[in-house]
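W.,

You were right to be curious about this one. When I first looked at the sequence I had no strong expectations either way, so I just let the prediction run and decided to look at it fresh. Below is the sequence, 460 residues in total, followed by the output.
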Amino acid sequence: MSKEKNFGYLGNTFQLQLLNNIVLYKDFANSIVDVLEPKYFDNQYFKLIMQMTKEYYHKYEHAPSFSTLEQITKSEVTSPMAQKMVLDMLNQVKEASNEGHQYVQEKSLKFCKQQELQKVMNKAQKIIDKGDFESYDYLEEMVREALQVGEVDTGTADVFFNLDEVLDDDFRHPIPMGIIGIDNLLKGGLAKGEIGVILAPTGVGKTTVLSKISNNAFNLGYNVLQIFFEDNPKIIQRKHFTMWTKIAPDNLSLHRDEVMSKIKQIKENAPNRLILKKLPSDQLTMSQIKNQIRKMIAEGTKIDMVVVDYIDCIVPDRNLGDEWKSEGSVMRGFESMCHELDIVGWTATQGNRSSISSDVVTTDQMGGSIKKAQVGHVIISVAKSLQQKEMNLATIAITKSRIGKDGVVFENCKFDNEMLEIDTDSSVTFLGLEEQKEEKNKERIKELLEKRKKRETPNK
Protein backbone atom coordinates (compact mmCIF):
# COMPACT_ATOMS: atom_id res chain seq x y z
CA MET A 1 0.00 0.00 0.00
CA SER A 2 1.29 3.47 -0.96
CA LYS A 3 2.82 5.47 1.90
CA GLU A 4 2.25 8.80 0.11
CA LYS A 5 0.33 11.28 2.29
CA ASN A 6 -0.72 13.75 -0.42
CA PHE A 7 -0.83 14.34 -4.18
CA GLY A 8 2.50 16.18 -4.16
CA TYR A 9 4.30 13.21 -5.71
CA LEU A 10 1.98 13.47 -8.76
CA GLY A 11 2.87 17.10 -9.42
CA ASN A 12 1.20 20.50 -9.58
CA THR A 13 -0.52 19.90 -12.93
CA PHE A 14 -2.24 16.78 -11.63
CA GLN A 15 -3.69 18.69 -8.67
CA LEU A 16 -4.93 21.49 -10.95
CA GLN A 17 -6.63 18.91 -13.19
CA LEU A 18 -8.14 17.12 -10.20
CA LEU A 19 -9.80 20.30 -8.89
CA ASN A 20 -10.92 21.12 -12.44
CA ASN A 21 -12.54 17.67 -12.79
CA ILE A 22 -14.47 18.04 -9.53
CA VAL A 23 -16.16 21.17 -10.88
CA LEU A 24 -16.78 19.89 -14.41
CA TYR A 25 -17.69 16.21 -13.87
CA LYS A 26 -20.81 15.78 -11.76
CA ASP A 27 -20.59 12.00 -11.31
CA PHE A 28 -16.90 12.18 -10.42
CA ALA A 29 -17.57 14.89 -7.81
CA ASN A 30 -20.32 12.74 -6.29
CA SER A 31 -17.92 9.80 -6.00
CA ILE A 32 -14.93 11.56 -4.44
CA VAL A 33 -15.81 14.76 -2.54
CA ASP A 34 -16.76 12.99 0.71
CA VAL A 35 -13.41 11.20 0.95
CA LEU A 36 -11.15 13.81 -0.64
CA GLU A 37 -9.54 15.76 2.19
CA PRO A 38 -7.95 19.22 1.73
CA LYS A 39 -4.80 17.87 3.41
CA TYR A 40 -4.25 15.56 0.42
CA PHE A 41 -3.09 18.63 -1.54
CA ASP A 42 0.40 20.03 -0.99
CA ASN A 43 -0.38 23.70 -1.65
CA GLN A 44 -2.22 25.94 0.84
CA TYR A 45 -4.33 27.51 -1.93
CA PHE A 46 -5.30 24.11 -3.33
CA LYS A 47 -6.31 23.13 0.21
CA LEU A 48 -8.43 26.26 0.61
CA ILE A 49 -10.19 25.71 -2.73
CA MET A 50 -10.91 22.09 -1.79
CA GLN A 51 -12.23 23.15 1.62
CA MET A 52 -14.61 25.68 0.02
CA THR A 53 -15.73 23.02 -2.48
CA LYS A 54 -16.45 20.45 0.24
CA GLU A 55 -18.42 22.91 2.38
CA TYR A 56 -20.49 24.02 -0.63
CA TYR A 57 -21.05 20.40 -1.71
CA HIS A 58 -22.28 19.30 1.72
CA LYS A 59 -24.66 22.25 1.88
CA TYR A 60 -26.11 22.11 -1.64
CA GLU A 61 -25.37 18.46 -2.62
CA HIS A 62 -23.49 19.38 -5.78
CA ALA A 63 -20.11 20.90 -6.63
CA PRO A 64 -19.88 24.67 -7.12
CA SER A 65 -19.09 26.31 -10.46
CA PHE A 66 -15.92 28.34 -10.94
CA SER A 67 -17.89 31.59 -10.76
CA THR A 68 -19.42 30.46 -7.44
CA LEU A 69 -15.98 29.63 -6.05
CA GLU A 70 -14.79 33.09 -7.09
CA GLN A 71 -17.74 34.70 -5.27
CA ILE A 72 -17.06 32.63 -2.14
CA THR A 73 -13.39 33.64 -2.26
CA LYS A 74 -14.26 37.33 -2.51
CA SER A 75 -16.69 37.14 0.41
CA GLU A 76 -14.71 34.89 2.76
CA VAL A 77 -11.02 35.63 2.11
CA THR A 78 -10.55 39.02 3.73
CA SER A 79 -6.85 39.59 3.05
CA PRO A 80 -6.45 41.34 -0.37
CA MET A 81 -3.14 39.55 -0.98
CA ALA A 82 -4.52 36.10 -0.11
CA GLN A 83 -7.70 36.78 -2.11
CA LYS A 84 -5.65 37.62 -5.20
CA MET A 85 -3.55 34.46 -4.79
CA VAL A 86 -6.63 32.25 -4.47
CA LEU A 87 -8.35 33.90 -7.47
CA ASP A 88 -5.19 33.45 -9.56
CA MET A 89 -5.06 29.80 -8.53
CA LEU A 90 -8.75 29.36 -9.38
CA ASN A 91 -8.06 30.74 -12.83
CA GLN A 92 -5.28 28.17 -13.29
CA VAL A 93 -7.69 25.43 -12.20
CA LYS A 94 -10.29 26.66 -14.70
CA GLU A 95 -7.75 26.70 -17.54
CA ALA A 96 -6.32 23.26 -16.67
CA SER A 97 -6.25 20.82 -19.58
CA ASN A 98 -8.94 18.14 -19.82
CA GLU A 99 -6.62 15.78 -21.66
CA GLY A 100 -6.19 12.54 -19.73
CA HIS A 101 -9.07 13.27 -17.34
CA GLN A 102 -9.81 9.52 -17.06
CA TYR A 103 -6.29 8.96 -15.67
CA VAL A 104 -6.64 11.84 -13.19
CA GLN A 105 -9.98 10.54 -11.91
CA GLU A 106 -8.84 6.92 -11.66
CA LYS A 107 -5.57 7.83 -9.94
CA SER A 108 -7.17 10.19 -7.40
CA LEU A 109 -9.94 7.71 -6.54
CA LYS A 110 -7.35 4.97 -6.04
CA PHE A 111 -5.33 7.28 -3.78
CA CYS A 112 -8.42 8.13 -1.67
CA LYS A 113 -9.37 4.46 -1.44
CA GLN A 114 -5.88 3.63 -0.17
CA GLN A 115 -6.10 6.39 2.42
CA GLU A 116 -9.47 5.11 3.64
CA LEU A 117 -8.09 1.56 3.86
CA GLN A 118 -5.09 2.84 5.81
CA LYS A 119 -7.42 4.53 8.31
CA VAL A 120 -9.38 1.28 8.69
CA MET A 121 -6.22 -0.77 9.18
CA ASN A 122 -5.01 1.61 11.89
CA LYS A 123 -8.37 1.33 13.70
CA ALA A 124 -8.34 -2.45 13.27
CA GLN A 125 -4.87 -2.73 14.76
CA LYS A 126 -5.93 -0.75 17.83
CA ILE A 127 -8.97 -2.98 18.32
CA ILE A 128 -6.85 -6.12 17.90
CA ASP A 129 -4.22 -4.78 20.34
CA LYS A 130 -6.99 -4.33 22.92
CA GLY A 131 -8.19 -7.89 22.32
CA ASP A 132 -11.69 -6.68 21.46
CA PHE A 133 -12.60 -9.62 19.22
CA GLU A 134 -16.33 -8.90 19.66
CA SER A 135 -15.88 -6.01 17.19
CA TYR A 136 -15.25 -8.35 14.24
CA ASP A 137 -18.52 -7.42 12.48
CA TYR A 138 -17.74 -3.73 12.93
CA LEU A 139 -14.27 -4.24 11.41
CA GLU A 140 -15.74 -6.10 8.47
CA GLU A 141 -18.20 -3.25 7.79
CA MET A 142 -15.40 -0.64 7.95
CA VAL A 143 -13.31 -2.54 5.41
CA ARG A 144 -16.30 -2.97 3.11
CA GLU A 145 -17.05 0.77 3.21
CA ALA A 146 -13.40 1.61 2.46
CA LEU A 147 -13.41 -0.71 -0.55
CA GLN A 148 -16.57 0.97 -1.88
CA VAL A 149 -14.99 4.44 -2.10
CA GLY A 150 -15.87 5.89 -5.50
CA GLU A 151 -18.74 3.48 -6.13
CA VAL A 152 -21.72 5.77 -6.60
CA ASP A 153 -24.95 4.22 -7.86
CA THR A 154 -27.00 7.02 -9.39
CA GLY A 155 -29.56 4.72 -10.98
CA THR A 156 -30.96 3.02 -7.88
CA ALA A 157 -33.74 4.41 -5.70
CA ASP A 158 -36.23 3.02 -3.24
CA VAL A 159 -39.71 2.82 -4.79
CA PHE A 160 -41.02 5.09 -2.02
CA PHE A 161 -38.30 7.74 -2.52
CA ASN A 162 -39.23 11.39 -3.21
CA LEU A 163 -42.99 10.81 -3.50
CA ASP A 164 -43.97 14.50 -3.79
CA GLU A 165 -41.76 15.04 -6.82
CA VAL A 166 -42.75 11.75 -8.47
CA LEU A 167 -46.46 12.60 -8.16
CA ASP A 168 -45.99 16.15 -9.46
CA ASP A 169 -48.09 16.69 -12.62
CA ASP A 170 -45.08 18.24 -14.32
CA PHE A 171 -42.33 16.05 -12.85
CA ARG A 172 -40.45 15.96 -16.19
CA HIS A 173 -40.33 19.77 -16.72
CA PRO A 174 -40.17 19.41 -20.54
CA ILE A 175 -38.97 22.01 -23.04
CA PRO A 176 -41.45 22.32 -25.96
CA MET A 177 -40.39 21.99 -29.60
CA GLY A 178 -42.64 24.84 -30.68
CA ILE A 179 -44.80 22.58 -32.89
CA ILE A 180 -48.06 22.42 -30.94
CA GLY A 181 -49.56 19.16 -32.23
CA ILE A 182 -46.35 17.23 -31.62
CA ASP A 183 -45.63 18.90 -28.26
CA ASN A 184 -49.06 17.77 -27.04
CA LEU A 185 -48.32 14.17 -28.00
CA LEU A 186 -44.92 14.38 -26.28
CA LYS A 187 -46.57 15.67 -23.09
CA GLY A 188 -44.99 19.08 -23.47
CA GLY A 189 -41.74 18.21 -25.28
CA LEU A 190 -38.49 16.62 -24.20
CA ALA A 191 -37.21 16.76 -20.62
CA LYS A 192 -33.59 17.05 -19.52
CA GLY A 193 -31.72 13.80 -20.00
CA GLU A 194 -33.93 12.82 -22.96
CA ILE A 195 -32.89 12.87 -26.62
CA GLY A 196 -34.92 13.31 -29.78
CA VAL A 197 -34.00 12.48 -33.38
CA ILE A 198 -35.29 14.10 -36.57
CA LEU A 199 -35.22 11.54 -39.40
CA ALA A 200 -35.48 12.78 -42.97
CA PRO A 201 -33.99 12.32 -46.45
CA THR A 202 -31.46 14.84 -47.67
CA GLY A 203 -32.79 18.28 -48.55
CA VAL A 204 -36.12 17.91 -46.76
CA GLY A 205 -35.56 20.31 -43.85
CA LYS A 206 -33.73 18.78 -40.90
CA THR A 207 -31.94 22.07 -40.21
CA THR A 208 -35.28 23.89 -40.39
CA VAL A 209 -36.77 21.68 -37.65
CA LEU A 210 -33.67 21.86 -35.43
CA SER A 211 -33.41 25.65 -35.83
CA LYS A 212 -37.08 26.03 -34.93
CA ILE A 213 -36.59 23.86 -31.81
CA SER A 214 -33.54 25.94 -30.80
CA ASN A 215 -35.31 29.24 -31.41
CA ASN A 216 -38.41 28.23 -29.46
CA ALA A 217 -36.39 27.04 -26.43
CA PHE A 218 -34.43 30.31 -26.41
CA ASN A 219 -37.67 32.32 -26.61
CA LEU A 220 -38.88 30.44 -23.52
CA GLY A 221 -35.82 31.55 -21.53
CA TYR A 222 -33.51 28.52 -21.85
CA ASN A 223 -29.80 28.51 -22.68
CA VAL A 224 -29.40 26.71 -26.01
CA LEU A 225 -26.29 25.46 -27.80
CA GLN A 226 -26.93 24.85 -31.51
CA ILE A 227 -24.07 22.89 -33.11
CA PHE A 228 -23.83 22.53 -36.88
CA PHE A 229 -21.24 21.12 -39.24
CA GLU A 230 -22.23 21.93 -42.81
CA ASP A 231 -23.98 25.33 -42.85
CA ASN A 232 -22.43 28.77 -42.86
CA PRO A 233 -23.00 30.49 -39.46
CA LYS A 234 -24.55 33.50 -41.21
CA ILE A 235 -27.19 31.23 -42.78
CA ILE A 236 -28.17 29.90 -39.35
CA GLN A 237 -28.26 33.44 -37.95
CA ARG A 238 -30.56 34.50 -40.80
CA LYS A 239 -32.89 31.60 -40.05
CA HIS A 240 -33.30 32.85 -36.47
CA PHE A 241 -33.76 36.45 -37.65
CA THR A 242 -36.53 35.26 -39.98
CA MET A 243 -38.32 33.46 -37.15
CA TRP A 244 -38.18 36.60 -35.01
CA THR A 245 -39.13 39.13 -37.70
CA LYS A 246 -41.28 37.04 -40.10
CA ILE A 247 -39.18 38.49 -42.93
CA ALA A 248 -37.80 36.01 -45.49
CA PRO A 249 -34.01 35.49 -45.37
CA ASP A 250 -33.49 36.99 -48.84
CA ASN A 251 -35.41 40.13 -47.82
CA LEU A 252 -33.69 40.76 -44.47
CA SER A 253 -31.19 43.18 -46.02
CA LEU A 254 -34.04 45.18 -47.59
CA HIS A 255 -35.51 45.72 -44.11
CA ARG A 256 -32.22 46.28 -42.33
CA ASP A 257 -33.41 48.91 -39.84
CA GLU A 258 -36.50 46.95 -38.86
CA VAL A 259 -34.47 43.75 -38.40
CA MET A 260 -31.74 45.47 -36.40
CA SER A 261 -34.32 47.07 -34.11
CA LYS A 262 -36.09 43.76 -33.47
CA ILE A 263 -32.87 41.82 -32.84
CA LYS A 264 -31.53 44.51 -30.52
CA GLN A 265 -34.77 44.40 -28.51
CA ILE A 266 -34.58 40.60 -28.16
CA LYS A 267 -30.93 40.75 -27.13
CA GLU A 268 -31.54 43.40 -24.47
CA ASN A 269 -34.52 41.56 -22.94
CA ALA A 270 -33.02 38.06 -22.90
CA PRO A 271 -31.01 37.00 -19.82
CA ASN A 272 -30.35 33.64 -21.50
CA ARG A 273 -28.21 32.75 -24.53
CA LEU A 274 -28.57 31.07 -27.93
CA ILE A 275 -25.04 29.97 -28.84
CA LEU A 276 -24.28 28.97 -32.44
CA LYS A 277 -21.22 26.80 -32.90
CA LYS A 278 -19.87 25.57 -36.25
CA LEU A 279 -17.56 22.57 -35.85
CA PRO A 280 -15.48 20.56 -38.33
CA SER A 281 -17.33 17.60 -39.83
CA ASP A 282 -16.05 14.01 -39.40
CA GLN A 283 -13.31 15.10 -36.98
CA LEU A 284 -15.00 15.70 -33.63
CA THR A 285 -16.00 13.11 -31.03
CA MET A 286 -18.86 13.29 -28.55
CA SER A 287 -16.33 13.47 -25.69
CA GLN A 288 -14.82 16.61 -27.23
CA ILE A 289 -18.26 18.18 -27.54
CA LYS A 290 -18.98 17.22 -23.92
CA ASN A 291 -15.78 18.94 -22.80
CA GLN A 292 -16.75 22.12 -24.66
CA ILE A 293 -20.13 22.15 -22.92
CA ARG A 294 -18.49 21.52 -19.55
CA LYS A 295 -16.27 24.52 -20.17
CA MET A 296 -19.32 26.70 -20.88
CA ILE A 297 -20.92 25.46 -17.65
CA ALA A 298 -17.72 26.17 -15.73
CA GLU A 299 -17.67 29.70 -17.13
CA GLY A 300 -21.20 30.34 -15.86
CA THR A 301 -23.51 29.36 -18.75
CA LYS A 302 -25.65 26.36 -17.76
CA ILE A 303 -26.73 24.80 -21.05
CA ASP A 304 -30.35 23.57 -20.96
CA MET A 305 -30.57 22.21 -24.51
CA VAL A 306 -28.01 21.07 -27.07
CA VAL A 307 -29.02 20.72 -30.72
CA VAL A 308 -26.63 18.78 -32.97
CA ASP A 309 -27.09 19.20 -36.73
CA TYR A 310 -26.43 16.37 -37.29
CA ILE A 311 -25.29 13.19 -35.47
CA ASP A 312 -23.86 11.53 -38.61
CA CYS A 313 -21.07 14.16 -38.69
CA ILE A 314 -19.61 13.01 -35.33
CA VAL A 315 -16.93 10.32 -35.18
CA PRO A 316 -16.65 7.68 -32.42
CA ASP A 317 -14.19 8.14 -29.56
CA ARG A 318 -12.36 5.00 -30.64
CA ASN A 319 -12.26 2.80 -33.71
CA LEU A 320 -14.59 -0.16 -33.14
CA GLY A 321 -13.75 -1.78 -36.49
CA ASP A 322 -17.42 -1.73 -37.54
CA GLU A 323 -19.16 1.33 -38.97
CA TRP A 324 -22.57 0.39 -37.55
CA LYS A 325 -21.19 -0.26 -34.06
CA SER A 326 -19.41 3.10 -34.26
CA GLU A 327 -22.64 4.93 -35.14
CA GLY A 328 -24.39 3.27 -32.23
CA SER A 329 -21.60 4.26 -29.84
CA VAL A 330 -21.85 7.90 -30.96
CA MET A 331 -25.58 7.97 -30.24
CA ARG A 332 -25.06 6.30 -26.86
CA GLY A 333 -22.39 8.89 -26.12
CA PHE A 334 -24.93 11.62 -26.92
CA GLU A 335 -27.49 10.06 -24.57
CA SER A 336 -24.88 9.65 -21.82
CA MET A 337 -23.77 13.28 -22.18
CA CYS A 338 -27.35 14.61 -21.95
CA HIS A 339 -28.03 12.48 -18.87
CA GLU A 340 -24.78 13.42 -17.13
CA LEU A 341 -25.01 17.15 -17.87
CA ASP A 342 -28.79 17.26 -17.30
CA ILE A 343 -29.69 18.77 -20.68
CA VAL A 344 -32.23 18.16 -23.45
CA GLY A 345 -30.67 16.74 -26.61
CA TRP A 346 -31.97 17.06 -30.17
CA THR A 347 -30.22 15.82 -33.29
CA ALA A 348 -30.97 14.63 -36.82
CA THR A 349 -29.98 11.75 -39.05
CA GLN A 350 -30.26 10.98 -42.75
CA GLY A 351 -32.82 8.58 -44.15
CA ASN A 352 -31.64 5.89 -46.57
CA ARG A 353 -32.34 5.83 -50.33
CA SER A 354 -35.79 4.32 -49.97
CA SER A 355 -36.83 7.21 -47.70
CA ILE A 356 -36.49 9.72 -50.55
CA SER A 357 -39.60 8.48 -52.34
CA SER A 358 -41.61 7.46 -49.27
CA ASP A 359 -44.93 9.04 -48.38
CA VAL A 360 -44.08 8.44 -44.71
CA VAL A 361 -40.50 7.84 -43.52
CA THR A 362 -40.30 5.03 -40.96
CA THR A 363 -37.59 4.05 -38.48
CA ASP A 364 -36.37 1.15 -40.63
CA GLN A 365 -35.48 3.71 -43.32
CA MET A 366 -32.87 5.33 -41.09
CA GLY A 367 -29.46 5.32 -42.74
CA GLY A 368 -26.69 3.33 -41.05
CA SER A 369 -27.07 1.59 -37.72
CA ILE A 370 -30.50 0.82 -36.26
CA LYS A 371 -28.89 1.41 -32.84
CA LYS A 372 -29.43 5.13 -33.46
CA ALA A 373 -33.17 4.44 -33.37
CA GLN A 374 -32.90 2.20 -30.32
CA VAL A 375 -31.21 4.88 -28.20
CA GLY A 376 -33.46 7.85 -29.00
CA HIS A 377 -36.38 8.60 -26.68
CA VAL A 378 -38.32 10.17 -29.56
CA ILE A 379 -37.96 9.84 -33.33
CA ILE A 380 -39.83 12.24 -35.61
CA SER A 381 -39.67 11.74 -39.37
CA VAL A 382 -40.30 14.22 -42.18
CA ALA A 383 -41.20 13.25 -45.75
CA LYS A 384 -41.86 15.42 -48.80
CA SER A 385 -43.02 14.54 -52.28
CA LEU A 386 -42.24 16.92 -55.15
CA GLN A 387 -45.82 18.17 -54.94
CA GLN A 388 -45.47 18.85 -51.23
CA LYS A 389 -42.17 20.69 -51.71
CA GLU A 390 -43.83 22.92 -54.27
CA MET A 391 -46.71 23.69 -51.91
CA ASN A 392 -44.57 24.11 -48.74
CA LEU A 393 -46.08 21.00 -47.18
CA ALA A 394 -44.72 17.84 -45.55
CA THR A 395 -45.84 14.62 -43.88
CA ILE A 396 -44.56 14.43 -40.31
CA ALA A 397 -44.73 11.24 -38.25
CA ILE A 398 -43.89 10.32 -34.66
CA THR A 399 -42.37 6.91 -35.35
CA LYS A 400 -41.12 6.25 -31.82
CA SER A 401 -41.89 7.76 -28.43
CA ARG A 402 -41.05 6.54 -24.94
CA ILE A 403 -42.91 9.57 -23.61
CA GLY A 404 -46.35 9.60 -25.21
CA LYS A 405 -48.26 8.28 -28.19
CA ASP A 406 -46.36 7.20 -31.29
CA GLY A 407 -47.38 5.97 -34.73
CA VAL A 408 -49.12 9.31 -35.35
CA VAL A 409 -48.93 10.76 -38.88
CA PHE A 410 -49.65 14.41 -39.77
CA GLU A 411 -50.34 14.51 -43.52
CA ASN A 412 -49.66 17.62 -45.57
CA CYS A 413 -48.64 19.88 -42.68
CA LYS A 414 -47.51 23.40 -43.37
CA PHE A 415 -43.71 23.16 -43.70
CA ASP A 416 -42.16 26.33 -45.10
CA ASN A 417 -38.38 25.96 -45.27
CA GLU A 418 -37.88 29.59 -46.21
CA MET A 419 -39.93 31.11 -43.38
CA LEU A 420 -39.21 28.22 -40.96
CA GLU A 421 -42.91 27.74 -40.27
CA ILE A 422 -44.13 24.28 -39.27
CA ASP A 423 -47.75 23.78 -38.30
CA THR A 424 -49.34 20.36 -37.82
CA ASP A 425 -52.78 21.99 -37.45
CA SER A 426 -52.60 23.51 -40.95
CA SER A 427 -52.77 20.25 -42.87
CA VAL A 428 -54.80 19.57 -46.01
CA THR A 429 -56.06 16.41 -47.69
CA PHE A 430 -54.46 15.07 -50.86
CA LEU A 431 -57.58 16.26 -52.68
CA GLY A 432 -56.96 19.73 -51.30
CA LEU A 433 -53.32 19.46 -52.39
CA GLU A 434 -54.39 18.70 -55.96
CA GLU A 435 -56.85 21.59 -55.89
CA GLN A 436 -54.13 23.98 -54.68
CA LYS A 437 -51.76 22.76 -57.38
CA GLU A 438 -54.40 23.20 -60.08
CA GLU A 439 -55.11 26.73 -58.88
CA LYS A 440 -51.40 27.53 -58.91
CA ASN A 441 -51.06 26.18 -62.44
CA LYS A 442 -53.95 28.38 -63.56
CA GLU A 443 -52.22 31.43 -62.08
CA ARG A 444 -48.98 30.55 -63.87
CA ILE A 445 -50.74 30.12 -67.20
CA LYS A 446 -52.45 33.46 -66.70
CA GLU A 447 -49.10 35.16 -65.95
CA LEU A 448 -47.48 33.59 -69.04
CA LEU A 449 -50.35 34.72 -71.28
CA GLU A 450 -50.11 38.27 -69.94
CA LYS A 451 -46.33 38.37 -70.55
CA ARG A 452 -46.82 36.99 -74.05
CA LYS A 453 -49.53 39.55 -74.75
CA LYS A 454 -47.20 42.38 -73.66
CA ARG A 455 -44.42 41.14 -75.95
CA GLU A 456 -46.77 40.88 -78.91
CA THR A 457 -48.35 44.32 -78.32
CA PRO A 458 -46.29 46.96 -80.29
CA ASN A 459 -45.02 49.96 -78.35
CA LYS A 460 -47.11 52.98 -78.93
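Here's what jumped out at me. Residues 430-460 form one domain. And, maybe more interesting for your project: DSSP finds 17 helices and nine strands in the chain.

Coffee later to discuss?

I.
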